[in-house]
Amino acid sequence: MFLIACFILLLCSHIYCTAHSPDDKYGQELLLCRKCGADVADSHYIFTKQSPGARKTEKQNLFGRHNITVQTLVNPFGIKFDIITTEKAKCQNIGPNQGADSWFPGYTWRICTCPHCGHHLGWTFESNSSIENTEDEINSFHGLILSNILGENFTDSLIMMPKMYRM
């Protein structure tokens, strides 16, 4: 009986996963806090905001998307961060806006932490221009540290059925 229940659950999850088209506008893949697993962003909102200070820029296939721009940025203390940029994220911003040492000219920054556990996720960048932004410029965005987030599909792959129950 237990094997039948496991098979039904496995079948239902397969049907659910295949019913969601990768072309859906939202919900491509949730980005999770690596420390607590809380959802902090949706891969739909990943976009490219190029930093002139990037030491390295490369395209990667991540979070159910192709050609995501990953930038390697270095802070004044020499610490390297690989980041992606998103239009929206669930961030608890810490402290006042800082203008010094911004990787994105014309933007101030604040530390972005997970609203659930407080883990450092990256930074929130806000335009310091009060003038209406052009098409290329947006009011705010987030730079998320790649090593501090996980894709939900990756975490789902970590949960495996015990060998004795596999068919």
From TrEMBL:
Annotated coiled-coil segments of the chain: none
Signal peptide: 1-19
CDD domains per UniProt: CRBN_C_like
Protein's UniProt keywords contain Iron-sulfur: no
PROSITE patterns listed in its UniProt record: CULT (PS51788)
Keywords on record: Signal
Keyword Cell inner membrane: no
Record-annotated CULT domain positions: 28-153
Protein name per Swiss-Prot or TrEMBL: CULT domain-containing protein
